[in-house]
Amino acid sequence: MGLKENNCSTVRVTILDQNDSPPSFRDMPRRYTVSEDHQAGRRVATITASDSDILGTLSYSLVSGDDGKFSLDETTGHLSLRETLDRETKDLYELVVRASDAVQHTDTTVYIQVTDTNDNPPQFYEHAYSFDVPENAKGSQVR
């Protein structure tokens, strides 16, 4: 029989990541409270998600529920007011927020509770009030 030859070689195998996992929202509060005197343009919250895929670059968007009152920065996830809110008009916003990696996406609901600010002066129901007070009445007896 002849001589057997053996050769050794190093083989490098690179496994490429496939974009097969949707983004997931991190454990964050999904309920926020905003005073109705919160100024337009100011940040309300930061939305954060992650993607286990190496190739996943995330972008954020508002899907529904904002009534044009909110803006969401697509790269940072900063949620801001477009205009001031009025609790007497609407006190709770349910925003559907999307995180997308360009192939897959995940939605979540973010709740914005609007708190009241004393922004309305007191009002009387009548223009004028009249009543009689007996001369010897004590202060607690006036009706």
TrEMBL record:
<keyword id="KW-0106">Calcium</keyword>
<dbReference type="GO" id="GO:0034332">
    <property type="term" value="P:adherens junction organization"/>
</dbReference>
<keyword id="KW-1133">Transmembrane helix</keyword>
<dbReference type="GO" id="GO:0030855">
    <property type="term" value="P:epithelial cell differentiation"/>
</dbReference>
<dbReference type="GO" id="GO:0016339">
    <property type="term" value="P:calcium-dependent cell-cell adhesion via plasma membrane cell adhesion molecules"/>
</dbReference>
<keyword id="KW-0732">Signal</keyword>
<feature type="domain" description="Cadherin">
    <location>
        <begin position="26"/>
        <end position="124"/>
    </location>
</feature>
<keyword id="KW-1015">Disulfide bond</keyword>
<dbReference type="InterPro" id="IPR020894">
    <property type="entry name" value="Cadherin_CS"/>
</dbReference>
<keyword id="KW-0245">EGF-like domain</keyword>
<dbReference type="GO" id="GO:0044331">
    <property type="term" value="P:cell-cell adhesion mediated by cadherin"/>
</dbReference>
<protein>
    <recommendedName>
        <fullName>Cadherin domain-containing protein</fullName>
    </recommendedName>
</protein>
<dbReference type="GO" id="GO:0016342">
    <property type="term" value="C:catenin complex"/>
</dbReference>
<dbReference type="GO" id="GO:0007043">
    <property type="term" value="P:cell-cell junction assembly"/>
</dbReference>
<dbReference type="GO" id="GO:0007156">
    <property type="term" value="P:homophilic cell adhesion via plasma membrane adhesion molecules"/>
</dbReference>
<keyword id="KW-0812">Transmembrane</keyword>
<dbReference type="Pfam" id="PF00028">
    <property type="entry name" value="Cadherin"/>
</dbReference>
<dbReference type="GO" id="GO:0007424">
    <property type="term" value="P:open tracheal system development"/>
</dbReference>
<dbReference type="GO" id="GO:0000902">
    <property type="term" value="P:cell morphogenesis"/>
</dbReference>
<dbReference type="GO" id="GO:0045296">
    <property type="term" value="F:cadherin binding"/>
</dbReference>
<dbReference type="GO" id="GO:0008104">
    <property type="term" value="P:intracellular protein localization"/>
</dbReference>
<dbReference type="InterPro" id="IPR015919">
    <property type="entry name" value="Cadherin-like_sf"/>
</dbReference>
<keyword id="KW-0325">Glycoprotein</keyword>
<dbReference type="GO" id="GO:0016477">
    <property type="term" value="P:cell migration"/>
</dbReference>
<keyword id="KW-0130">Cell adhesion</keyword>
<keyword id="KW-0472">Membrane</keyword>
<dbReference type="GO" id="GO:0005912">
    <property type="term" value="C:adherens junction"/>
</dbReference>
<dbReference type="InterPro" id="IPR039808">
    <property type="entry name" value="Cadherin"/>
</dbReference>
<keyword id="KW-0677">Repeat</keyword>
<dbReference type="GO" id="GO:0005509">
    <property type="term" value="F:calcium ion binding"/>
</dbReference>
<dbReference type="InterPro" id="IPR002126">
    <property type="entry name" value="Cadherin-like_dom"/>
</dbReference>
<dbReference type="GO" id="GO:0008013">
    <property type="term" value="F:beta-catenin binding"/>
</dbReference>
